[in-house]
Amino acid sequence: MSSNQIVKVGIIGCGLVTQVVHIPTLGFLSDYFNITFLCDVSPAALEHSAKKVINHVPQTTQDASELCASPNVDVVLLANPDEYHAVHAIEALKHDKHVLIEKPMALCERDADAIIAAEGNSKGKVMIGYMRRYAPAFEDLVNEVGGMEKITYARVRDIIGPNSHFVSQSAMFPKAFIDFSTEAVDDLKSKQDDIINQALAVECGIPVTPEATKAWRFLGGLGSHDLSAMREALGMPQKVVGASLGPIWKYDAPRWLSALKLITFTSVIFEYPGFSVTYETGIDDIPRFDAHVEVYSKQKSVRVCYDTPFVKGLPINLLIRENLDGTYRESIVRKTYEDPYTVEFKKLYDMVVNRKAVKTTAKDAKEDLKIFQMIMKAGVRPGGQ
């Protein structure tokens, strides 16, 4: 029997990531966590996900406020559409709950500032779910970069195939549901329009077009993983030298899933003091996962290589190439098979129970939005992309 304090978790959003990652991982960490409450606008998703919880059936609700107010919840995990992250984070913080927000924390600075202000008035703390940054291999890369005499170049790449290819091999058997009420769909659309106008027209000063909207959502989705990792490893860039946001070739998902199904590629060149960084990212129909961060110096290069998070136990390795007195040496460093989500949840536990600080704070996450703005201003031409 565990002697640990068990942290009670309420999850808002019962989609694919919750079904494939959050519920199983928290179940494996049953010495630390217990899922006590689930919330979703889909009754069928709630029923399906509740059955996935190990050893008991959690409470369920379609009302996020009920979950946030529950005395049976210590941590609110937000895995719902991005448009509701600020609304529900603020509601949870009003009740002094801790909050884990899946990235992106917010899609505009206005909402980011509202979350930061709410945290300042709460006993609860906010952690953002940049799980890749908690991988031990990535933290080793950051340490290696800190020991480099001079960085000469860096590359950030994230080119992936359809998630469905990997999810189908996860043995989690997730299901998608569309039994949303008309009111829920309309409310989401209203929030989408408001947030995109705020982000693009007000904060970026660029026209709100379908192409710009899709590019912004793409940066907030896949891009936030990479650019957040780039910030931790290298700091904030000085400027964007050039950006190609790329055409969108497919955009045929229902409105509720509109940011998740697209085929596009984006290329960016960032300028740092004394070196440049190439960022290349895209989604296509080739079933592979090509994601890494690589940093070069005169005598050494270090690369952290990521694999899909939807198949548990795949290693995250650090690849080191170096010149040792004229001899080429290549090393692969693997500290653990423990996946980044598991490591991230252990950090969440330390934040809640042991009051330890986390690096992926709300203030930290706001910096991503500044980089998104730099990219959009460089990539959006007058009259369109």
UniProtKB/TrEMBL annotation:
Molecular function, one GO term: oxidoreductase activity
First and last residue of the signal peptide: none
Domain Gfo/Idh/MocA-like oxidoreductase N-terminal: 7-130
Gene Ontology BP, a term: NADPH regeneration
Any one of the GO CC terms: cytoplasm
Name of this chain's protein: Gfo/Idh/MocA-like oxidoreductase N-terminal domain-containing protein
